[in-house]
Amino acid sequence: MKRPLLISLALLVVSGGIYWWIAESSRPVDFNTQVKPILNKRCITCHGGVKRESEYSLLFRKEAMDKGKSGKLAIIAGDAAHSELIKRINASDPEERMPYKKDPLTKEEIEILTKWIDQGAPWGDHWAYTKVESPEVPAASSWTKNSIDQFILEKMDEHDLSPSPQASNEMLLRRVSLDLTGLPADEKVQKDFLQGKLSYENLVDSLLNSPHYGERWASVWLDLARYADTKGYERDDSRTIWRYRDWVINAFNRDMPYDSFLIEQLAGDLLPNPTDNQYLATAFHRNSMTNDEGGTDNEEFRTAAVLDRVNTTWEGLMGTTFACVQCHSHPYDPFRQEEYYKFMAFFNNTRDEDTEADYPLLRHLEKGDEEKLKEITDWVKKNTSEEKAREVYTFVKTGQPAINSLLSDRFVNAELSDTKWLVFRNHGVARLAHVDVTNKNFLIYRFASFKPGGTWTIHLDKPDGPVIKQLVLPETKSWVTEEVSITPFAGTHDLYFTYVNPNLKKAEDSGVLFDWFYFTDYSVKRVTENNIGKNYWELVTKNFPTTPIMMENPPSMKRTTQVFRRGNWLVKTDTVQADVPASLNPIPASMPHNRLGLAQWMVSEDNPLVSRTIVNRVWEQLFGIGLVETLEDMGTQGMPPTHPELLNYLSYHLMHDDQWSLKKLVREIVLSATYRQDSKVTEAHLTKDPLNKFYARAPRVRLSAEQVRDQALAVSGLLSNKMFGPSVMPYQPGGIWLSPWNGATWKISKGEDRHRRALYTYWKRTAPYPSMMTFDGSAREVCTARRIRTNTPLQALVMLNDSVYVEASYQLAALMQKSAKTLEEQIKFGYTRAIGHAPSSEVVKALAQLYTRTAETMEVKRVNNSKPAKNNRKENAMMLVASAILNLDEFVTKN
Amino acid sequence: MSHESLEQITRRLFLKECGLGLGSLALGSLWGCSTDKPKTLFNALNPLQTRAPHFPGKAKSVIYLHMAGAPSQLELFDFKPELQKLDGQDCPPSLLEGKKFAFIRGVPKMLGPKAKFAQHGQSGAWISENLPHLSTVADEITFLKAVQTDQFNHAPAQLLMHTGSPRLGRPSMGAWVTYGLGSENNNLPGFVVLTSGGKNPDAGKSVWGSGFLPSVYQGVQCRSEGDPVLFINDPQGIERNERRASIDAINEINQQHYKDVGDPEILSRIAQYEMAYRMQIAVPEVMNINDEPKYIHEMYGTHPGKESFANNVLLARKLVEKGVRFVQLFDWGWDSHGTDANLAIDIGFINKCRQTDKAVTALLLDLKQRGLLDETLVIWGGEFGRTPMQENREGKQNPFIGRDHHTEAFTIWMAGGGIKKGLSYGETDEIGYAAVKGKTSTYDVQATILNQLGFNHEQLTYDFQGRPFRLTDVHGKVINEIIT
Question: What is the mean pLDDT of residues A669-692?
Answer without folding.
Answer: 92
